[in-house]
Amino acid sequence: MAPVSLMAGKTVAITGASAGIGLETAKALSAMGAHIIAIVRDPAKADAALANVAHDTVVADLYSLAAVRAAGAEIRKRCSRLDVLINNAGGIHGARELTVDGFEKTFALDHLAAFLLTYELKDLLAASAPARIVTVSSAAHRMASFVWDDLATMQRWRGQNAVYGTAKLCNIWFARESARRLAAQNVTSNSLHPGAVASNFGQTGSALYRTVAKLARPLLKTVAQGARTSVFVASSPQLEGASGLYFANEKPTKPSRWARDDREALKLWRLSEQCCGVTWA
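and the corresponding structure tokens:
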């Protein structure tokens, strides 16, 4: 059990903090003394779920780049410091759908939202250093399948598992490249696999996916167990200065060979800048 004062005085922003792994992460870090900034779509749901957690709520539809920018601006306005940003929100979609910005929904939510929100908050994180960025990926990154000229829109749909795996691969590339870029500012960036968790994740997946997930629930981790690696990477003193790593079961783990290709990570970075209309020096 981590000491209750481990995160005392620290501010932690978490996307998707009203349910599932995000909610359990918020509860655990709050119990260690952190103040939580919950970035959610439904403020009433968040406030009910986080009733016993010291928190502020920032409302944002993370499928929209404009909403992500607005959330970043709101956090900068409200907070004098930000010690940890946890890019937790994610989803899987059973069919190809596009966001208001014209991007495939899984890629937009799981990757572009994390990329742009981190861009919006990087200066606040640097001013609060040492600070941490934690991005929830998945072992599903090993199922990634895409071609570069189709990544943002997925017109050549390869199925929900391949698209989700691709977004999770992007999470790892993002963590590696942002770690390199933020090293001089004493801001670390790591990604993780939470494990197979019995949560409500996948409700936007296909009917078959939802059925399989329901049948598998007794074999999966509890949501609290699934949150442990997020909490560990966000708070552990053992990880001071550790950056660009991928964790599973609270330990550094080697991701796929493709995920370790930093030339590919840089290619994703440049594409993400184009999609979001930003330039990150």
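(Above: one complete record from the training split.) The chain has one domain: 11-276.
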